[in-house]
Each structure stands twice: as structure tokens, then as C-alpha cells.
Design brief:
The protein is mainly beta. The chain contains 4 helices and 16 strands.
């Protein structure tokens, strides 16, 4: 069990991806409007757009969940989204915020928030796919109440890092770099695995479950007609701070503190799952 820690010990703008905390940068981007930036992916009326497109509520009942995605595709960027998760007994539900490319050898960056029984902490489940290969799961207890208010969650993806996941192609580790990705959010039922490995099922008497979204921003390279809106790498790095951004010393210390106190699963420590040896990046991470 993770030890207790005051929520005020960490920034209220909380951004966990692949075992890292990223302190919010000063990159300026326009706040999103649902009608301009997103399309509904599924839900048959369970996507409610409010406040002239500034707020979106996704709902889940026994018949279906719901979701949306950006109209644009991106090849690198910094993406922010404010989310208020399902309150109360949310066991079995999963609220997502992720990037995903097309095709059978897809790239993907996952943030999945696993619901729980009332009073138990939410779990953030992260994963990274490159060329269709994933199995890079990590899980954290959230140290604050993500249902009481909106919190900003961010993904930083540039040519060298997805937050702390380094580009190790030179050592033979695949890295998402050539496939543009679309940003998705959804609310769906995963009672077969989401809460305590599926032991706790969804209480449908609590339905409909609702998660709310607002404040989307993307400072990113838009991919359109086979080309990026960003200039060359050197020009992009000069224009966009996130293009070459890495964790500074303070952010690395914050990340380490969260890992020590709140990480409950790390694929790089699961030797039973990988009896033939841990993935290459785990070995490289240990050596570094």
C-alpha cells in the first residue's frame, strides 16, 4: 500500500505519463471548442456538449459508453485536457485520454483512469505502444480526489521523449516517430479487468456514470495531406519549447517521489511476466 502524502506536496496541474510527472510549461495554445476540435466516436446521444462547446460530459450505462476524438492528427506536441472523473462508486469504469495512430502496427500513448469503490483511490494506468507493440504498463494511485474538481492531464511527445520514455532506437527499442496520431477520450465499461483485476464488478444501479472534460489545448505539429505543419527539427525546436523539452531536475525529483510513494505496478519490475528477460528499455533504464 502506498504511503500517505499531502495533495499539496505536488502541483495541482497533474500530468502522469509512463511513470512521470511533468511540470506544466508556459507554451501558449488556444483552448479547445468541442464543435471546432472534436468529433463524436460512439455513444448514441451519451455525449453532451455544454457551455457553447466549452464543456463535454460523457456518460456510461449498461448499453454503451461514449467518446470523442480530435478532428486533427498530430506528429509531436503537448496536449492538455481538464478532466473530472466519475464520482462515487466508479468500480468497473474506465475514463481515457490517449493518442492513437491508424493501421495494424499502430503507435499509442495511454492514460486510463480505473474506477474504484467509494473511498478507494483511483488508479492511473499508463501504457505505450510502438509499431503495434505495447506491454509497457505502469500504475499509480492518485494522491488527490480527481472527482471533486477538474484537473489538467497532459501528454508531452517530442522526437526524443514521451515525458521520460526516451527514444532508444539506436539501441533497438522502437519509438513513435513517424505515424501521426489522433487524440481520443472515452468512458467505457471494463468490469472484467479494471477494478481489482475484475473481482469488483460495475454496480449498474449507480448508472449513468458521468465524466466531464474541458480546457483542451494542443501546441502541436498538425499532420495534414501527408505533411507536418511544423518546420524542420531545428526550426521547430527554436519555435516550440516542448519540441526539445525534457524533465528538469525539480520535475525528475517529483517523478521519483511519486514513483516511490504511489507506483503500484511497473512492467520493468515484473520478472514473472517476462521470464525470458525484461524488455530492453528496462535494462537500459537500470544501467542509466
Amino acid at each position: 500500500m502506498a504511503t500517505s502524502l499531502s495533495p499539496n506536496s505536488f502541483p495541482r496541474k497533474t500530468m502522469l505519463v509512463v511513470c512521470a510527472i511533468l511540470i506544466s510549461s508556459s507554451v501558449v495554445a488556444l483552448a479547445g471548442n468541442f464543435y471546432q476540435d472534436f468529433d463524436v466516436t460512439f455513444g448514441d446521444g451519451r455525449v453532451q456538449v455544454l457551455n457553447n462547446g466549452q464543456l463535454v460530459a460523457l456518460s456510461l450505462d449498461k448499453a454503451s459508453g461514449s467518446g470523442f476524438r480530435t478532428k486533427n492528427q498530430y506528429l509531436y506536441g503537448k496536449f492538455d485536457l481538464q478532466i473530472k472523473l466519475v464520482p462515487g462508486n466508479s468500480a468497473g469504469t474506465v475514463t481515457t485520454f490517449y493518442l492513437h495512430s491508424d493501421g495494424s502496427t499502430w503507435d499509442e500513448v495511454d492514460l486510463e483512469f480505473l474506477g474504484n469503490l467509494s473511498g478507494d483511490p483511483y488508479i492511473l494506468h499508463t501504457n505505450l505502444y510502438s509499431q503495434g507493440k505495447g506491454n509497457r504498463e505502469q500504475q499509480f494511485y492518485l494522491w488527490f480526489d480527481p472527482t471533486a474538481d477538474f484537473h489538467t492531464y497532459s501528454v508531452l511527445w517530442n522526437p526524443s521523449h514521451i515525458v521520460e520514455f526516451k527514444n532508444l532506437e539506436a539501441a533497438g527499442v522502437a519509438y513513435p516517430k513517424s505515424q501521426p496520431m489522433t487524440l481520443y477520450s472515452s468512458l467505457w465499461d471494463a468490469e472484467d479487468w479494471a477494478t481489482r483485476g475484475g473481482l469488483v464488478k460495475t454496480d449498474w444501479s449507480q448508472a449513468p456514470f458521468t465524466a466531464s472534460f474541458r480546457g483542451f489545448s494542443a501546441s502541436a505539429c498538425v499532420w495534414s495531406n501527408g505533411a507536418s505543419s511544423c518546420p524542420s527539427s531545428s526550426a521547430a525546436a527554436a519555435k516550440y519549447p516542448w519540441f526539445s523539452q525534457q524533465l528538469d531536475a525539480a520535475s525528475q525529483q517529483t517523478m521519483k517521489s511519486v514513483q516511490q510513494k504511489y507506483m503500484i505496478y511497473d512492467y520493468c519490475q515484473d520478472t514473472k511476466r517476462f521470464p525470458q528477460g525484461l524488455p530492453l528499455e528496462c535494462t537500459l533504464r537500470t544501467k542509466s
